[in-house]
Amino acid sequence: MSRWAPNTRARLESAALDLFVQNGYEETTVAQITDRAGVNRATFFRHFADKREVLFGGEDLLAELFADGVRAAPPDSTLIDCLHAALAAAGVAMTPQQRIMAAQRVLVVAANTEVQERGLLKHTRTARSISAALRTRGMDELTARLGAEVGMLAFTIALERWMAADNDAPFRAHAAAALNDLRKRTAALDPQRS
Amino acid sequence: MSRWAPNTRARLESAALDLFVQNGYEETTVAQITDRAGVNRATFFRHFADKREVLFGGEDLLAELFADGVRAAPPDSTLIDCLHAALAAAGVAMTPQQRIMAAQRVLVVAANTEVQERGLLKHTRTARSISAALRTRGMDELTARLGAEVGMLAFTIALERWMAADNDAPFRAHAAAALNDLRKRTAALDPQRS
Predict the structure, then answer these.
(1) Cα–Cα nearest to A69, from A98, A92, A95
(2) Of B108, B87, B128, B127, which is closest to residue B13 (Cα–Cα)?
(3) Do B149 and B127 form a contact (C-beta atoms < 8 A)?
(4) How many A-B residue pairs are in contact by the CB < 8 A criterion?
(5) Pairwise CB contact (< 8 Å): A146 & B184
(6) Choosing a second label site near A53 at 20 to 30 A (CA), which of A59, A113, B29, B100?
(7) Contacts with B, A 55-74, CB within 8 Å
(8) Which residues of chain B have pLDDT under 50?
(9) Exposure pattern of B27-36 as b/e (b: 16+ CB <10 Å)?
């Protein structure tokens, strides 16, 4: 257990992931998580509705950061500019500790369909948060939904590359590169545009 | 119960949706579904792993149809051509009976998070099936993943419009229009392309 963990919530997340990876998700109880984190049961449920939420609570923060990034982009920003702003804003949450937890999360999710399903629900809600923020900028519904899907795909690809990287380049660098790589490929969706 | 239902599987789906909408998803038992469809319990489980699957079993067929459409597209097809081919192939499954069931499914999914999660898992697997088919055509991984997301978004939008339409235009027409609408909006993702 990390005695120096910055806050209770992160300590609970980290303890849970350690146990899930070590003993399996199904086999781990909330009591074991709170024991390891050194907090009581009530504290756990103040932060998370259930055991599954401890894996994906960070997605709610991400959804807010993405939306904040979109809303704070300069007035003349294009769709792609807004997506870059969203990913840059989300980068704040992508700390080295998160990088370790992200790799643990992949292992847990791969081993459990129920957990995977909850992750997808969070993913969908995050996409909706991005498209809603794009709509507040006056973009039409289809543009906003297309932007949200491409933004989420860029985020997913950046996360994969960040976890696999053998260097400590920050998440922001991976995110900007992934979105740029996708931008170049949009030509294949509209080859006749001149 | 539709005595003229073309086959057992569709009869089970239709019976289940009627009951889910009428009495609630949680409240409906497999026994009630089989009673209404006029088949026995073993038959149900030959077609569906559990109660949730009866809602989304059609997604597995869709995933196959999409992938078949991509693979059968002419050799010189661009990404957007392949997506049009995938949606056209899926159109075969989108019968008037499916249109009624799709509207019922929306009601059931909206009322139940657990069900929604299963739907998202199926959605993700369908997207993977499209991207895998695009990869077999020699497209690089990012192009295939971008294509799969845009194809799935076009499908979702087409489904919404098909359900909301006050005419009997076939799904294929909505699908082609939705994909074309998204194509036009890709310019916002790469505004500097000349």
Answers:
(1) A92
(2) B108
(3) yes
(4) 101
(5) no
(6) B29
(7) none
(8) 1-5
(9) ebebeebbeb
Whether residue A4 has pLDDT greater than 80: no
Q: Which pLDDT belongs to residue B10?
A: 86
How buried is B151 (Cβ within 10 angstroms: 0-12 exposed, 13-18 middle, 19+ buried)? buried
Instruction: Give the DSSP letter of residue A76.
Output: T
- By CB atoms closer than 10 A (0-12, 13-18, 19+), residue A114 is middle
d(CA B66, CA B62): 6
A116 interaction partners in chain B (CB closer than 8 Å)? 121
What pLDDT was estimated at residue A97?
87
Structure token digits, residue B165: 């339409």
Q: Give per-residue pLDDT as tens, A64-84.
A: 999 999 999 999 999 999 999
Q: Which tens digits make up the pLDDT trace of B159-180?
A: 999 999 999 999 999 999 999 9
